[in-house]
Design a protein that fits this description.
- This protein is an alpha+beta fold.
- It has a single domain (2-153), classed as Pnp Oxidase, Chain A, CATH 2.30.110.10.
- The protein contains three helices and twelve strands.
- A seven-stranded antiparallel beta sheet has the order 3-2-6-9-10-5-4. A three-stranded antiparallel beta sheet has the order 1-11-12, covered by helices on one side.
- The protein starts with a helix and ends with a strand.
- This is Flavin oxidoreductase.
């Protein structure tokens, strides 16, 4: 009962949207996350949580990843990375690769290349705290939020 109430409570709470991307053993991987938060400015650090999907396991095992903070132009990308089977990492979606190998979404509001400092398993998820090594600012303007199971951009 409390699990359903917990999910209902967070459906009422709008959050920002990110796609976390990395290079796994079989190529690029990514997942949509609505749990990204700033942890520290000095040193720069962020956090997010990921559930035990195949993509999440690859991101969690990676030595580095990119947290792509999404704006309204990326709503469809967020949908594709929130479920399996959709197109991923296509040039049409705006993906490129950093010199360090990680996929980066060119039209993200910002992309932060980071490396994990701590991984804390909690139930069926893992909370990651990561040091931010590089910040790439994309085009500003607009917002994309996840609210009540919908991606809403404006």
């Amino acid at each position: 009962m409390i699990a359903e109430q917990f999910k209902a409570a967070f459906r009422r709470y709008p959050t920002g949207v990110a796609v976390i991307s990395a290079v796994g053993p079989d190529g690029p991987v990514g997942l949509t996350a609505s749990s990204v938060a700033s942890v520290s400015v000095e040193p720069p650090a962020l956090s997010f949580s990921a559930m035990g999907t195949r993509s999440a396991r690859a991101v969690l095992a990676a030595e580095s990843f990119v947290v792509n903070l999404l704006g309204p132009a990326s709503a469809e990308v967020a949908r594709h990375f929130a479920s399996s089977g959709g197109p991923r990492f296509t040039e049409e979606q705006g993906w490129a690769f950093l010199p360090t190998g990680e996929p980066v979404l060119r039209h993200a509001l910002a992309s932060l290349r980071a490396a994990p400092l701590h991984r804390l398993p909690v139930g069926d998820s893992t909370v990651v705290v990561a040091a931010v090594h590089e910040v790439f600012l994309g085009p500003g303007g607009g917002r994309l939020v996840y609210h009540d199971r919908e991606f809403i951009g404006n």
